[in-house]
Design a protein that fits this description.
The protein is mainly α and 221 residues long. It folds into two domains: 84 residues, Orthogonal Bundle (Endonuclease Iii, domain 2); 100 residues, Endonuclease III, domain 1. The protein has eleven helices and no strands. Helix 4 packs across helix 6, helix 5 packs across helix 6 and helix 9 crosses helix 11. The longest helix is centred in the middle third of the chain and has 19 residues. The chain is globular.
């Protein structure tokens, strides 16, 4: 995919949804950080269901510490890997209180020091809360970028590096949201719904499905 095609790709997605947002529910930077940390190997819908009551009680790291690990587990037990996630949330909350005055830092270098916070989680927080132009490469973005030919790579880090170079300025802030939503609802993992894709002519995916495959068992790679 060349520069002109990449520009047109995002132009069409932006025309459809000018100001996309994460589908995770949160009220402040800390709640966003917790929600993203909980979302690993879980759906946003599932995380939102679990955090609805939690976030009504907990708005700060200190309130999370006051709730305690067992109390947190009760709220998030429907989420996969909730035991390890609870430990990480409590540990990062402790670190935020002790080292950052209870505030979420606004640099990737500081965010990834927090327990359970990797580069992807840090990028989401930096983008969604602090308005920084970052590219949080999850499974959806990784798939879309490789399928379309926009930014092929064998690892999320390789895809992110190519997006950094290739996404044009007008679209950099919201690019990762458009890619996530496109992967979640159109360019799906099990069945790419190419027949309703707005950027199908720009895509290099070789196994395009041009009609709705009702009853079709064979899936594209």
């Amino acid at each position: 995919m060349n520069k002109a095609q990449i520009f047109e790709f995002f132009r069409r997605l932006a025309e459809d949804d000018p100001a996309p947002r994460t589908e995770l529910a949160y009220g402040n930077a800390y709640q966003l950080l917790v929600a993203v940390a909980l979302s690993a190997q879980a759906t946003d819908v599932g995380v939102n269901k679990a955090t609805r009551a939690l976030f009504a009680k907990v708005q700060t790291p200190q309130q999370m510490l006051d709730l305690g690990e067992d109390g947190l587990k009760e709220h998030i037990k429907t989420i996969g890997l909730f035991n390890s996630k609870a430990k990480n949330v409590m540990a990062l909350s402790q670190m935020l209180v002790e080292d950052y005055g209870g505030k979420v830092p606004d640099t990737r270098e500081e965010l990834v020091k927090l327990p359970g916070v990797g580069r992807k989680t840090a990028n989401v927080v930096l983008n969604c809360w602090f308005g920084q132009e970052t590219f949080a490469v999850d499974t959806h973005i990784f798939r879309v970028c490789n399928r379309t030919g926009m930014a092929k790579g064998k690892t999320p880090e390789q895809v992110e590096a190519k997006l950094e170079k290739r996404v044009p300025p007008p679209f950099r802030l919201h690019a990762h949201h458009w890619l996530i939503l496109h992967g979640r609802y159109v360019c799906k993992a099990r069945q790419a719904e190419c027949w309703r894709c707005k950027v199908i002519d720009l895509c290099s995916f070789r196994k395009k499905v041009l009609t709705s495959p009702k009853g079709r068992s064979k899936q594209p790679d």
